[in-house]
Amino acid sequence: MNKPHLTIQGINKSFGTVAALKDVNLEIHKNEFVCLLGPSGCGKTTLLRIIAGLEKASSGRILAGGKDISMLPPAKRNFGMVFQSYALFPNLTAYQNVAYGLQGKSFSKKDIGEKVQHVLKLVDLSHASSRYPSQLSGGQQQRIALARAIVLSPDFLLLDEPLSALDAKVRVRLRHEIRELQERLGITTIMVTHDQEEALTMSDRIVVMNNAEVQQIGTPQEVYEQPNSPFVADFIGSINFLHDKSEGAAPTPRWAVRPEHIRISAEGTGEGVSAIVKNIEFRGSFYRLLLETESVEAGGGHDSITVDVSAHVSNHLQLMKNGIVSLEVPKEKLISFTSEARIHA
Ligand SMILES: Nc1ncnc2c1ncn2[C@@H]1O[C@H](COP(=O)(O)OP(=O)(O)OP(=O)(O)O)[C@@H](O)[C@H]1O
Description:
This protein has nine helices and 18 strands. The chain is an alpha+beta fold. The longest helix has 18 residues, at 168-185.
C-alpha cells in the first residue's frame, strides 16, 4: 500500500486529571473517508482538534505526507474544517462567506470570483450566492460551510458532526452529497460522528472509540460483521449477547448474534427451539420481534432475543403476540469474543 497521507502516532491528551486520548495510532490514506465514531466524551473531537492544530497533544506526533506537522499552527496545515454549528459570518452573504478565506492570499479578484462560483456550483447553491445565512435553511448553511472549506483546495477535510444539527431527511441527503463531493474532489476526509448509521453509510473506514481509546479500526462491513469486542458489537447496530450461564462462567458475553441473522419458522418445524413472541414492532421495511426462549443457553432460564424479519416472513408465519415460533441461530453467524481483542489497522 502507498505511504499514509496522515499518520497519527501515539497521541495522548489529558485535560488536568481527565485522560481524553490514550495512545491513539492511526494511518489514513489519500482519498480515504474515515469516521471517528463513539459515544459522547470518548475523545473524538479532541482528536480532530489535535489533527487540525487547534489543540496540542500531551504526547505523540502527527505526520502529513510523512512530515511532522505537530508543531505547525492551524493556518499552516492546509486543512478545511466544517463544524456542527455552521459558523458562518451572519453579516456576510453566502458568496462573501466562501470568498473570505481566499482574501489576503495571492489571488486576483477574478480568480476569487471563479473559485467561489465553482464551489458554489459544486454544492448546488449558485442561485443563493447573495443571500445571508439567516435567509438559508440549515442544510444550505452547512453546504456553504462545506464550500468555504473546500474553496482553499485543502489537503484534508475535517468535519466535526457536520450533520447533527439538521433534520433527518436533510441529514440523509447531505450524507450522500458530502460523500459524492469528497469522492469527486478526492479530498482525504476525517469526520467525527456519534451516529453509527452515518458512519456506516459514509465511511471507507471507521475508527470506533470508547473511553479515550481506539477500540477497532475497520471498514463498515468489518466493524459490523466482526466486532472485536462487546462494546463495538453493541455500539454499531443491534445485537443479542449470549451469556454462558453455567456455573463459574465469566459474566462477560462470549457470543453474540445480529437480530437479522436469527431464523424463525413455524412451531414444531426445523431444528430450532421454541420461543414465545412477546412483542412485534413495525419498523417500516421489517418487523422487530422480541422473543422469549427457555433453553437456548447452558443453565436454562428465560432469555429475551431480538429478531428482525421481513414483512414477507412475518405474513407467511402469521406472527402474533404470544404466538409460538421455532428459532434457530446459524452457527456461521455467531460472533465470538473469545479471542484477544484485535485491532484492524
Ligand atoms: N477544553 C477541555 N477542558 C477540559 N476537559 C475537556 C476539554 N475538552 C474536552 N475535555 C474532556 O475530554 C474528554 C473528551 O472530550 P471530547 O469533546 O473529545 O469527546 P467527544 O467524543 O467529542 O464527545 P461529544 O460527542 O460529546 O462531543 C471528555 O471527558 C471531556 O469532558
